[in-house]
Amino acid sequence: MSTFRLAHLSDPHLGPLPDPKLLQLFSKRILGYLNWRRNRSRIMGGSYLEQLVDDMKRQAPDHIAVTGDLVNIALPLEISGARTWLEEIGAPENVSVVPGNHDAYVPGAVRRARAAWWPYMRGDGAGDVPPNGTKSQATFPYVRKRDGIALVGVTTGRASGPWFATGRAGSKQSKRLRATLDDLGRDGFFRVVMLHHPPFPHATHWHKRLSDASRVRAVVKRAGAELILHGHTHIDSFEHIEGPDGRVPVVGVPSATSAPGGKKPAARYNLFRIEKTNEGWTCQMEEHGFSAPNEPVKLLSERQVDIPTHRP
Fold this sequence. Notes:
single chain; Purple Acid Phosphatase, chain A, domain 2; 6-stranded mixed beta sheet
């Protein structure tokens, strides 16, 4: 097979925030709204996102993975606006999305997000609309097969209480994930698991953690995967968790709207060049982003990603 180019970006937190109705703020949203007004609106810039996406498109990726937090406080206008943004970055068959905690900010939000973004988070062969009467988590994990690559979308986005940004995969989804990864591994696919919250230990503060990360790690340890992509932390990270054939790389990326010069790394996207060989798989990773204010997007680093050789 030819080289498959997979781009990964996350946490765009699309702005500006629409003016909320008063009743919409009678919830956890009031905290997020104040945080946006005081902090996020200054450190997250749409112009950086636009430049980042333009540069990413010039790389002509075969597929784009967006690992959550498209919105801020999950207002209906934010969710519909995010659908418009998705349409601008690519066709549904070329862009895969999983929800983050901000997309599930209040009860019912992730259900509305799934309905609006369904073409971007449905598996191969799924219907044009989400199945009637199903909970939002019931359609995850979804699978998209592209030229020997299997993109596996996992949801960890769930509504949480004030001052919490936790996520959870859940036991039912985790069981489905294990069966899915087992099947794909037997068929020889390069399995890319996409989720919002990082699954490795001590990845973030307790109130922002993936509460059942150990369960997800256990699934990967038994079934295996070739690459895991996440967002949530707004930093660049390269970690590993155990798989049945060796260590599985876990890669995080900064927020796609983070302005240069702040406390967190500036906006970036990662580009993976994946190729099948006689011995297994090779994967080359590039980081593209901003290194300083008033500078264009550029190639920041390159590295070879060691992929465990899966033996079904």
